[in-house]
Specification:
Blueprint (H helix, E strand, L loop, with lengths): L7 H19 L5 E4 L10 E4 L1 H8 L4 E4 L8 E3 L7 E5 L1
Antiparallel strand pairs: 1-2, 3-5, 4-5
The structure holds zinc ion (ZN).
């Protein structure tokens, strides 16, 4: 087995990618619940976003979508206000 470490935020991110794929397939324009991508494995926060907003966040691979105040070690908060927050890995 390799030594690849799968980090929590990346597990949440791939789950969100599956949600986005579903939304894209159905052409849904309304906000749907995406998962908080913080580093807490027990986090069950949901963020209601339209696909458009989600894809805008995803256009920067360094960025993770989190509930306000949720954190990822070694990432800095870049947009603290609003219904969701963004953290960026350095
Ligand atoms: Zn969280």
């Amino acid at each position: 087995m390799g030594g690849t470490v799968v980090q929590t935020e990346d597990v949440f991110r791939s789950a969100n990618e599956r949600i986005a794929h579903l939304v894209r397939e159905h052409g849904w324009r309304f906000p749907v619940p995406f998962l908080c991508e913080c580093a807490d494995t027990h986090c069950f926060a949901r963020l209601e976003l339209t696909l458009e907003v989600y894809e805008d966040v995803r256009s920067n691979p360094q960025r993770y979508l989190t509930a306000p105040g949720h954190e990822i070690p070694a990432a800095k908060a870049i947009e603290p206000a609003g219904t969701f927050a963004l953290v960026e890995k350095l």
